[in-house]
UniProtKB/TrEMBL annotation:
Protein name: DNA topoisomerase (ATP-hydrolyzing)
One Gene Ontology biological process: DNA topological change
Coiled coil: none
UniProt keyword Cytoplasm present: no
Length: 324
C-alpha cells in the first residue's frame, strides 16, 4: 500500500463525516448511486438497497441495458469508484459479488470502531433516495428494511423528474397560478429542466428549488440568477416594445408569487459556499437567461392579458409601494 492510500484511509477513519455527511450509511448509499451513474454515464440502472439487520447491509446494481463503455472509462473498475474506496475503508466485513446480466452486489458490515451513525434511519434514507430518483429520471431504486417483524419497502422511479415537484407546488399553492411555463432540453452540452410559475392572492412568498447534477443548490446560484435575469429581460423588452414608461422591473418585486423548480446537468460544474451548494457557472447563467427570456417573450406576445396581469405589480402609477 502506497503512502497516498494510507493517508486516504487514515483520513476517512478519523473524519468519516467529511466524506459521508452526518447521516453515515445514508450518505454512503447516496454516494454509491451517484458514482455508478457517473461511471456508466447513464441513469438507466436498477439499484436495490437492503437493510438486513443491525449494521448488515446489501447494495445491488443492475444495468438495465448492455453498455459499451466509453474509451476514457473502459479501464475504470468498480474499485476506482470513490465511494467504493470509502466503503472498503469503513467496512469491517465486505463481500463483492459480480453476477450475470451486468449485476454487482456489495454485502457489508460497517466498522463500529469508527465514529459513524450505523442506525440507517429508514425514513431519512427514503427521503434521500426519492430525491436522487427525481433528479435521475431513468433510475429505479428499491429500498427494503428487514430489521423489524414486518418488512418496510419502497420503490422509486420518477419519469417526470423535478416536474413532479413543480406540478405539486402549483397544485398546493395558496393563490391560483396566473401562468406556468416549462422547458426541458439541451443547450451547449448542458441539460436543463425549468418550471416557472406565478401566483396571485396577495403576492405570496416565493418557493424556489434548484439543483445542479445531484446537488441541492439550496442557496441558488447562477442557474436561479439566470432564470430570473431572463424573466426580467423579457419583461423589460415587452414593455419597451409596447411603449410603456411607468414600469420599473425590480428583482425584489419579482420574487413575490414566484414558483421556480429548476435543474441543470453537465460536466465541470463548480460550487461555492461552505458546503459547496452555490452553483457558479457563467455559461449556465447565460444559457438559462436566454432560455427563459424566449419562453416568457413567447408567452407574453401570445397572451397579452397574462402579461398585463403579471406586469401590473411593476407599474409605479398603480402600485407606488415597494412592498409588492
Amino acid at each position: 500500500m502506497d503512502q497516498r492510500q494510507k493517508t486516504f484511509e487514515r483520513s476517512v477513519r478519523e473524519r468519516p463525516h467529511m466524506y459521508l455527511g452526518n447521516d453515515g450509511v445514508i450518505g454512503l448509499f447516496a454516494g454509491l448511486i451517484t458514482d455508478y451513474i457517473e461511471l456508466y454515464n447513464t441513469s438507466n440502472i436498477f439499484f436495490t438497497i437492503t437493510i438486513l439487520g443491525a449494521n448488515i447491509f446489501s447494495f445491488n446494481i443492475q444495468l438495465k441495458e448492455r453498455l459499451v463503455m466509453p474509451k476514457e472509462t473502459s479501464r475504470v473498475s468498480a474499485n476506482a469508484i470513490f465511494f467504493v474506496q470509502v466503503l472498503k475503508v469503513i467496512s469491517k466485513k465486505l463481500e463483492v459479488q459480480n453476477g450475470v446480466m451486468n449485476q454487482t452486489e456489495f454485502n457489508f458490515n460497517l466498522d463500529s470502531d469508527i465514529n459513524l451513525d450505523l442506525t440507517a434511519d429508514y425514513q431519512k434514507l427514503c427521503e434521500e433516495i426519492s430525491l436522487l430518483a427525481m433528479l435521475n429520471t431513468q433510475i429505479e431504486i428499491f429500498v427494503k428494511d428487514l430489521r423489524l417483524n414486518y418488512t418496510s419497502q419502497n420503490y422509486y422511479n420518477f419519469p417526470q423528474g423535478i416536474f413532479y415537484w413543480f406540478d405539486r407546488l402549483n397544485n398546493e399553492a395558496s393563490g391560483k397560478p396566473r401562468f406556468k411555463v416549462t422547458f426541458e432540453g439541451m443547450a451547449q452540452g448542458f441539460h436543463y429542466r425549468i418550471g416557472l410559475a406565478y401566483r396571485t392572492d396577495w403576492y405570496p412568498s416565493p418557493v424556489i428549488l434548484s439543483f445542479a447534477n445531484n446537488i441541492t443548490t439550496t442557496r441558488g446560484g447562477d442557474l436561479v440568477d439566470g432564470v430570473l435575469s431572463g424573466l426580467m429581460s423579457a419583461s423589460r423588452q415587452f414593455l419597451k416594445d409596447n411603449g410603456s414608461t411607468t414600469f420599473n422591473i425590480k428583482r425584489k418585486k419579482l420574487y413575490n408569487g414566484l414558483i421556480l423548480v429548476c435543474a441543470v446537468k453537465g460536466k465541470d460544474l463548480t460550487y461555492n459556499g461552505s458546503f459547496k451548494e452555490i452553483l457558479v457557472s457563467k455559461e449556465v447563467k447565460a444559457q438559462a437567461k436566454e432560455i427563459v427570456k424566449k419562453l416568457i417573450t413567447d408567452l407574453f406576445w401570445q397572451n397579452k392579458d397574462v402579461a398585463e396581469s403579471f406586469l401590473f405589480r411593476f407599474d409605479k402609477q398603480q402600485i407606488p409601494s415597494d412592498i409588492y
